[in-house]
Please model this.
Amino acid sequence: MAQEKEVRTSAKRRTDLMKQYVDSAEMQRQLYRKTLWIVVISQILGGAGLAAGVTVGALLAEDMFGDAIFAGIPTALFTLGSAGGAYAVGKISQKFGRRPGLSAGFFVGAAGAVGVILSAVADNLPMLLISLLFYGSGTATNLLARYAGTDLASAKQRGKAISIAMVSTTFGAFAGPNLVGAMGRFAESIGVPALAGPFILAAAVYFLASLVLFTFLRPDPLLVAQAAAVKKGQDDKSANKQAAELPVINSRGVFLGATVMVITQLVMVAVMTMTPVHMGHHGHSLGAVGMVISIHITAMYLPSLLTGILVDKVGRTAMAVAAGITLLSAGIVAAFAPGSSLPMLVLALALLGLGWNFGLISGTALIVDSTLPEARAKTQGTVDVLVALSGAAGGMLSGMVVAGFSYTVLSLAGGFLALLLIPVVVWSLGRNKPAAD
Model:
């Protein structure tokens, strides 16, 4: 009886606290700032975790399979796993809030990293393939966490909020690949293959990210945003405002945002996946591979603050076009760079990361702009499923293209595919003109 009374008291406390946040714009602003800090910490940790699969996943597969044609499988699998993770995290977040969704996603990613380590020790390929699927949940969660920072942001703050979340990933993502050598030596000292070493780091940081979000992300920003939207809708109706009749989802905006992110992800993953293998075939050391990938990941995230400002000031569509042009430049440089030229490969992968950054932030802002809180998390999860699947396709096909043709063909094909962003944006602007009239 006493336990029931305590549960009721606790529920009432939560309801009263939620009402205070819904009724106070100042409390919502404070929660917005607090949420950004928590997201920043989780992104730093998550960035270090996702770098493990990017840096050594292809090399581990090539080593265990014994053939470079299978080198794209890890990227395809953990990207496919991230599709399932994105869907699950989106559904959980929509129903229960960001806190349970994001913390569960990182926890599953940590379990997958542990599975990769055990499969490498046992030289067990089926276990490796299954574990990579679960590891992908951490990748999906790391990306979905960027949306948590936008739940209570105004329309003029969204690009900046996304960029703050993403730029914080840089610190972990830069450290991760540069710890490849140290983690490899540590792994060997405890009887684990060197290439599985970075996954030890991934398991630890994903678990810590899960713990941080579960412990500190309260009150839940999405639940507060949803409750505030309901109250605003009721106020608008009582005031006979037409704003209350706005659609929950703007399908055209969601389509454009999704297309931008899908194409940029496909191109980036395809070229990035085979670069370590291409470098290995030209005699570059594991340390050099780690440096190139760390610069690539830094270019994916570090420019985010500037990109966020540009997305808010210059516009979402202009930055989507910039993404296509930058990715084309990356493909051309990668295609014609001598395999032995480390500086040229660094430049190509830096441009590849920058183009992805432009596309992801502009596409994310378009998705947030085009949804209301009552359908936002579910839509975001669904779009990120498509993004993950495109990455899985890029990872799987990249090994086949390089094996059947060459790294040059892969790079050029990716660059010219990115140019599709320009007609998509032009089509979208053309369709928007009648609506504006």
Q: What stands out?
A: The CA atoms of residues 82 and 194 lie 25 Å apart. The first helix runs from residue 2 to 23.
